[in-house]
Amino acid sequence: MVLTLLRFPGAVVDFRAALAHKQELYPEESEIIAEAHFKLSLALEFASITRTKDEGEDGVDATEAETHVDQSMRDEAVKELEAAINSTKLKLQNKEVELASTSSPDDNEVTRAQIAEVKEIVAEMEGRVSLQASLGLQDQSLTIDSAR
């Protein structure tokens, strides 16, 4: 019996469709596109983990649940997160060009603040990619160790 508390596989389908529609409407550097990639990444990450619970004797539920990780979904989640990062970096480049071409000190301060915020977002997402990569390596080593 598979425990399904939330419908992450359904969310993956919905977020893929949403991303495809948004890509038809907005340029790659749009934060709407970056957000769509990010949300799809999260849905893929959560959908990659399933928990199964074996039924005990006489149909009584056992207390132990087993967790399974779909590494291909995790890998796809990383790719989507990297796409979100690339989209955000394009926006960052556009803001930096805007800063260079603006002569108003007030506008420059606003643009500098926006650039700093976008750089923080990129750093957070890059940290998440590193974390996911290290988790993937741990999962692979656990699989190799258990196969021995």
Descriptive report:
There is one protein chain. The protein has one domain (2-147). Helix content is 74%, strand content 12%. It is built from 4 helices and 3 strands. The chain has helices spanning 8-25, 31-47, 71-101, 105-147; strands at 2-3, 49-55, 61-69. Strands 1-2-3 form a 3-stranded antiparallel sheet. Strand 2 (49-55) and strand 3 (61-69) form a beta hairpin.
Question: Summed up, what is this model?
Answer:
The protein is of the alpha+beta class.
Features:
148 residues; alpha+beta; three-stranded antiparallel sheet; 4 helices; 3 strands; 74% helix; elongated; disordered N terminus; disordered C terminus
Protein topology:
Elements: E1 2-3, H1 8-25, H2 31-47, E2 49-55, E3 61-69, H3 71-101, H4 105-147
Antiparallel strand pairs: 1-2, 2-3
Helix pairs in contact: 1-2, 2-3, 3-4
For the report, how would you describe the main beta sheet? 3 strands, antiparallel
Count of spatially separate domains: 1
| Class computed from helices, strands and strand pairing | alpha+beta
Give the count of helical stretches: 4
Order of helices and strands: EHHEEHH
**Any idea what the radius of gyration is?**
21 Å
Uncertain residue ranges: 1-5, 140-148
Q: Whole-Å distance between the termini?
A: 28 Å
Percentage beta strand: 5-15%
Shape: elongated
Helix content: over 70%
Please count the beta strands (DSSP E, at least 2 residues each).
Answer: 3
Mean pLDDT over the full residue set: 81
Strand order of the largest sheet: 1-2-3
